[in-house]
Amino acid sequence: MGTNLQEILEEANRVLKQGGTLLVAEVASRFEDTRAFMTAMAQLGFKSVSKDLSSPFFFLLEFSKTAPPRPRPCAGLRLRPCRYKRR
């Protein structure tokens, strides 16, 4: 839910050991482009292990740390604000 997504993921990379697992569970409507997000995660040193995009509400993505992040901004790390519905 943070707004500084790149810094959050760089810190996750820093604290994980090589081969460590990062799980991302996020509201599906926040993703603008899932493919661009996956490419950006590769730039941050994570390899996609599995992804479950079957739910219309939440995406579950699993990554493994493969390398330190490349020191540049990752364009695909934009997420939309959450859309809440009144019920």
UniProtKB/TrEMBL annotation:
Main localization of the protein described in the UniProt heading: nucleus
GO CC aspect terms: chromatin silencing complex; nucleolus; rDNA heterochromatin
One GO term (biological process): cellular response to glucose starvation
Metal-binding listed as a keyword: no
Keywords, comma-separated and alphabetical: Methyltransferase, Nucleus, rRNA processing, S-adenosyl-L-methionine, Transferase
MF (Gene Ontology): methyltransferase activity
Compartments where located: Nucleus, Nucleolus
Record has Ribonucleoprotein as a keyword: no
Cross-referenced InterPro entries: RRP8, SAM-dependent_MTases_sf
SUPFAM superfamilies, alphabetized: S-adenosyl-L-methionine-dependent methyltransferases
EC numbers for this chain: 2.1.1.-
Family label: Belongs to the methyltransferase superfamily. RRP8 family.
Known function: Probable methyltransferase required to silence rDNA.
Name of the protein: Ribosomal RNA-processing protein 8
Organism of provenance: Anas platyrhynchos platyrhynchos (Northern mallard)
